Amino acid sequence: MIISQNFDSGNIEVIDADDPADIRLNIRRDNKSDFFQWFHFRLTATTGTNCYLTIANAGEAAYAEGWENYRVCASYDRETWFRIDTHYGGGALSWNITLDQDSIYFAYFAPYSMERHADLIADAAQSPLTRSHVLGHSLDGQDIDLLEIGHGAEGRKKIWMAARQHPGETMAEWWMEGAVARLLDPDDPVVRKLLDKAHFYIVPNINPDGSRRGHLRTNAAGVNLNRVWTSTTMETSPEVFLVREKMLETGVDFHLDVHGDEALPYNFIAGFEGIPSISDNQMALLTRYQNELKTITPDFQTKHGYDVDAPGTANLEICTNYMAEKFGCLAMTLEMPFKDNDDLPDLDVGWAPERCMHLAHSCIDALARIIDDL
To answer: Which residues pair with 369 in a beta bridge?
Structure first.
């Protein structure tokens, strides 16, 4: 039996794997950081082997409450991911499986590889609606990709969307794949009308280093990118610095920052209620967008979410707060679950890539309904 993780976004440490009935593992911490929770590894053994796996340090993870009612993701072909009943207790996460094939992959959520990211950028660039830019490079030397989609920015609303500030939140880039596909569909009447009024700037993965390294929350330097939007530097967070510079150049009328939440089994939006300069118009647009999205898809709700900041107390280092304050625009953080949407559960796959992409389509529909008022 072999357990391996030396591949794109791999993360696991083997404590003991001599007995398939008692495999003990740890999740590796992000580089130069105490954050950890993302795992992704391959187990190779003979078909029919019964394996019992335990992640011993799960209770020390960044969001241990996220393990409650969580079910691990597994795949034999790295394309179709399914869920396995999982137990959390005594600070450890455990599951059991009898192998149907000689090799299986396990992950915290369906991975989105940097190779698939490269395919996403290359495929999108084939459209006459798309311009593909490299804003610069990460600390590990990877490209920071920007897709510009539309008929030209002049006279149109500037729509910004970004994902994977926290690289372990892979559902965010699955969402991006769905959004890009929707915007580049030449037969979609909603999109055709929307692109008459809007020009899109899309960063499908703002943290490629953390993604490739198998981090949960930080870049190569151990920096949480969603906590440096007013203090970013090229030395420690070039990813944010480069994107922010482009935003300052283009202006922003709408910004959606796409994330995943470990604990809450729902899709929801976090706003900017605590920023110093908040306006009635911003709040009206925030409420309207959420209400429109809620009417479009049963996969979105407004009952469950984060506590709202008191007036004037927002942390402006957080992207959504920074954007709303700096540009006076409608800015939001979309959160999706690692577990499932408890309002519409799927016992086989939980919240899954296909559902992320469908939600992206619904988010485009909601934007189309409010575009005239941005």
So the answer is: none
Residues 43 and 120 in one domain: no
Q: How confident is the model at residue 38 (pLDDT cuts 50, 70, 90)?
A: very high
Please work out, in degrees rounded to the nearest 5, the angle formed at the alpha carbon of residue 106 by the alpha carbons of 101 and 109: 135
pLDDT for res 18: 95
On whether both 204 and 93 belong to a single domain, the answer is no
**Within this chain, do residues 102 and 170 fall inside the same structural domain, yes or no?**
no
Q: Letter for the amino acid at 137?
A: H
Q: Provide the pLDDT for residue 219.
A: 98
Predicted pLDDT at 105: 98
Looking at the structure, tell me whether residues 26 and 134 fall in a common domain: no
φ, ψ at 69 (rounded to 5°): 65, 15
pLDDT for res 271: 98
The count of structural domains within the chain is 2
Taking each helix axis as running N to C, give the angle between helix 171-183 and helix 353-370, from 0 to 180 degrees, rounded to the nearest 10: 50
- pLDDT value, residue 188: 98
292 in the same domain as 183: yes
| Residues 28 and 48 occupy one common structural domain | yes
No. of helices (H) and no. of strands (E), the chain: 8, 17
Helices (H), ranges, 214-318: 238-250, 280-296
What is the pTM (predicted TM-score) of this model?
A: 0.98
* Domain that includes residue 86, residue range: 2-107
Among 45, 76, 107, give the residue marking a domain's end.
107
Can 60 be counted among the known catalytic residues?
no
Of 148, 177, 273, 335, which one is the catalytic site residue?
335
DSSP assignment of 294-351: HHH-TT--SSS-PPPPPTT---TTSHHHHHHHHH-SEEEEEEEESS--TTS--TTTSS
Residue % of the chain over a pLDDT of 90: 100
Q: 3-state DSSP call for residue 204? A: coil
98 with 210, same domain: the answer is no
Distances, alpha carbon 211 to alpha carbons 170, 202, 304, in Å? 8, 17, 28
Strands (E) across the chain are located at 2-4, 13-16, 23-26, 40-44, 50-55, 72-75, 82-84, 86-89, 92-98, 103-107, 130-137, 143-149, 157-163, 198-203, 254-261, 268-270, 330-337
For residues 61 and 151, membership in a common domain is answered with no
